Amino acid sequence: MLTSITDGILCCLTGKAASLVMPVESSEPADTFEFVEVKPGRVLRVRHIIPERQSSVVTEEDQVKEPEQEKGSGSNNSSSVHCKRKITVYRNGQLVIENLGDVLHSQILQCQDGDLEPCSTVEVELADYKEVPTSPEPKPTPPLPTVGDQKPAAPPRRRHRKPKRTLMIDSEREISSCKGTHSDVALFFVHGVGGSLDIWGSQLDFFSRLGYEVIAPDLAGHGASTAPHITAAYTFFALAEDMRAIFKKYARKRNILVGHSYGVSFCTFLAHEYPDQVHKVVMINGGGPTALEPSLCSIFQLPSCVLHCLSPCLAWSFLKAGFAHQGAKEKQLLKQGNAFNVNPFVLRAMMSGQYWPEGDEVYHAELTVPILLVHGMYDKFVPMDEDQRMAEILLFAFLKVIEEGSHMVMMECPDTVNTLLHEFFLWEPDMSKKDTVKTDPDKTVTVNGVVVQTPKPNKPMDK
């Protein structure tokens, strides 16, 4: 603590950063790490594991289940899903989403589901994220007194809302099971602010042993990636272009993106930019479908030297808020994951650079990729209702809640998260029991401030 304060005072006096971001020590084999120059002078550390497939991974059980499938060829049976929805944005700030295509049901049962059901129509307010009551029906006007044969005046007609713009999505998407024996599958893991690729240690080891190719980069200024001493290097768009370069370098035919916290935004960006290459997405404690805008009253707006003095307090606060328990195990996980082990200048620039006006509800509503939302019950950074709102906006989304987890749930409950993710990777929709959505206009409910018309399937839904 005293050393941190001393370095912070020197930083204030000299006007220079108290320390530079240096490569972190790792016990992992050096041959699994690569350094990729995404731009001249901008180098990211990437952990890239290509496992030995075919003979060592394929079991006799797999061979019995897939007699016609060549080992490692990636050929597999897929289900074609009709993705159709109408997105209408009105001038008063309302967003109405009508789902007109297929309804998918999750078969993942490891964790409890969020309290959501597939719905046909969702109506929300764009401008305000708070619960806003929908426009009430006009009250009937009492009849005017009649004079002789004069008829009472007709009640005023409700003003028709004028749409500002309308988007129609109508496409077919192939969704298939992604196994570790398939050579055309790659898993990407993207961390958030203050972390590094080390927070994914349990997931990278687990899935590489199952035969998956895994890719996990360090964001600029994090882990062992270079840390430019310029604020513009840490804006959302600069970091998103870094992730684009990594994705284009390592992408296979079917790619699965796994993001945590701020890393979810980059996964969303890639899924929107490359809908044909991104096969599935996992969002872990990513928050709601709202545009990013930095907070002007945040503690991270303080000068870098002050943040350096406060770094022990910030680490302690992160331990309290990021983990459900604060024992010796959690402290060791925090140290191993290098969470908040970044330069104060980088931390400040990352927080102030979270500006992404395009990433609003409409942007998320346009996604057609299947998405698994994982939420830690004790997360103090991301409230439950934000992930619930995300699940309501997305076309194909399954919300799973891990009761014993918090914000760093993949480090706290690695076995539960690994099993949940693996089931999602292997999941494919059973289109033999396809539901046709029919809306009952007389049956409406309100969930988290969203007006939902409940569907009436022709066949009973699978439970």
From TrEMBL:
- What Gene3D superfamilies does this protein map onto? alpha/beta hydrolase (3.40.50.1820)
Q: Where is this region: Disordered?
A: 57-81, 129-164
Q: Which domain of life is it from?
A: Eukaryota
Ranges of Polar residues compositional bias?
72-81
Q: Where is the composition biased (Basic and acidic residues)?
A: 62-71
- Gene Ontology cellular component terms for the protein in this record: mitochondrion
Query: What UniProt keywords are attached to this protein's entry?
Result: Hydrolase
Q: What is this protein called?
A: Protein ABHD8
Domain spans labelled AB hydrolase-1 = 186-302
Q: Which GO terms describe its molecular function?
A: carboxylic ester hydrolase activity; lysophosphatidic acid acyltransferase activity
Q: Where is the composition biased (Pro residues)?
A: 135-145
Q: Which family does it belong to?
A: Belongs to the AB hydrolase superfamily.
Q: Which GO terms describe its biological process?
A: lipid homeostasis; negative regulation of NLRP3 inflammasome complex assembly; phosphatidic acid biosynthetic process
